[in-house]
Prior knowledge:
The protein is of the alpha/beta class. 25% of the residues lie in helices and 26% in strands.
Amino acid sequence: MESLYPTTKTFSLKNYGINNAKMRYQLSPEQLEKEVLEKGQGKVTKSGALAINTGEFTGRSPMDRFIVKDQITEDKVWWGNINIPFEQDAFDKLYDKVTSYLSDKEVFVRDSYACADPEYRLNIRVINEHPWSNMFAYNMFLRPEEDELASFDPDWIIVNAPGFMADPAVDGTRQHNFAILNFSKKIALIGGTGYTGEIKKGIFSALNFILPVERNCLPMHCSANEGADGNTSLFFGLSGTGKTTLSTDPDRQLIGDDEHAWTEENTVFNFEGGCYAKVIDLSAENEPEIYGAIKKGALLENVIIKDNGEVDYADTSITQNTRVSYPIHHIENIKVPSRGKTVTNIFFLTADAFGVLPPISKLTKEQASYHFISGYTAKVAGTEAGINEPKPSFSACFGAPFMPLHPKEYGDMLMEKIEKTGANVWLVNTGWTGGSYGTGSRMKLKYTRAMINAALNGELADATFTKDPYFDLAVPEECPNVPSEILNPRNTWTDKEKYDQKAQELLNSFKENFKKFE
Length: 518
C-alpha cells in the first residue's frame, strides 16, 4: 500500500477491509487544497477560501439515517422515524461493499478526536474518498499534536464514500444514500452523499448516546461562549436560528458553535475543533467575525462565485443551505482550550415562522422544560432534502435528528442542571415580526443582539415583565437599545385579529405536539 506524505505513523487500511489503496495520511490543509484543485473539484475564492460543491445533497437526509439494532442499542434507543433501525447483517454486507468500492482507490485518512475535555476524549479515524471531505474533517474535529499520532488508537472510525450508491432492494437502505451508526463496531458508515454535515453529525449522534448512557454527561445541540466574568452562556437552536451568529460575540470568548456537553462537575466542553456556519446573506457588517474567518483554510460549500472571485452570498441558486467550515482558531476571540464553567444563562433560539412569539421572554423552570422538550422552530428551506420552503416544526431538545435516546432523558438531565445552578433561561425569537413568513420581516440581528446582551449583563433582571396572553411568557416591557413596541409581537401586526388567529394556531400546534411526551 502506497502512503504519500508519510508521517512517523504506519498502519494498514486492510484492517478495515480496504485493499491496495493509495493512502494520503494526515495531509495538511494546504496539501488537501492542492489535491482538490488538481482534481478540478473546487476553486479558490478572492478571500483565499476553497469553494466546493457537495453534489446531489446540499443538506442532511434524515430519512436515510440509521442505527444498527443490536445488544447495545436495542433497549436504549428511542426507535421510530428519527432513529430508524438497521439490521446487523445488512450493515456488515453494506460495509463490505463500501470498503470494496474504496479498495484500489486513492483515499484520504485523518486521525482526529472529539471532546475538548481530556476526560471525555473520543479518538476518531476518518477515511474519505474525496480530499475536500478530509479537509472538512480537519476543520471540524479536534487536531492531535504531531507527537500524539504515533500512539494514536481510534475509538471510532468514519468511512465516507460519497461516490458509492447503495441498491435499496439489496442493501436495506431507503434509497442510494445512507448514514449508519454501528455502536458495537464503533463505525459511522456514510455513502451516496457528499454533504459534509453527515460526517460531523454522525459523531455528534454517537456522543449523544455514549455520554449520557456511559458517563452521566448531558450532550447538547448548542453553542457556548464565556464572558470576562468567567460565566458561560449556552445557545440552543436548530439550523438557521442564529446559534453560530449570536454566540460569536467580540465581547465574549467563543467556546464552540454547535455541539457541547455539560458534565457532572458543572463544566462545559466543546465536541469540535471548528465551526460550520450558514453563509446565506452573510455580510461583513452583520457578522464580522464569521465573515473574517472565511480565508485560506476555510471550506465553502455550494456557493456561487462571481467572475472576480468574490462569493455572492445572496445567491441561493444551488441551495439556501450554503455553508462554510473553518478551524475555530479562525475566530480571534476564542476560549483555549474550548471549555467553560458556571453556566448562568441559557437561550432557546427559535425562528418563529408564525411571527407571534415575543423576541425575548424569561422562562420559569417548568416552561424551560416544556420548550426544551418541544424544540419549536421553522425549518429553513434547503437545510434538509425535500424542504423547499420554511414551515413550522418541532424538534425535541432542539436536536431530535441527532438524539438516540428518548427526549425526556435529555430533558430531565437539563432540568436537574438548571435546578442545581440556578441558571436563567430565555426564549428568543429570531424569526418573524409584524406578520407571518411572507408578510412580516425577519427580526433585525442588532435588536436580537441587544436583547441577549441585556440578559447577559443583568439589565433585564430589574425589568418590568408582562404576561403574554397566549403562551404565558414573561415579556419585558423595555430593553436597552430595542424599540419597546417590538417587544410585544401583537403590537407589530397591522391586523390584530390575524395575529390572534395565528397565535392560537401556533398554541394549538404546541399542545398537539406535546401530547406524545405526556
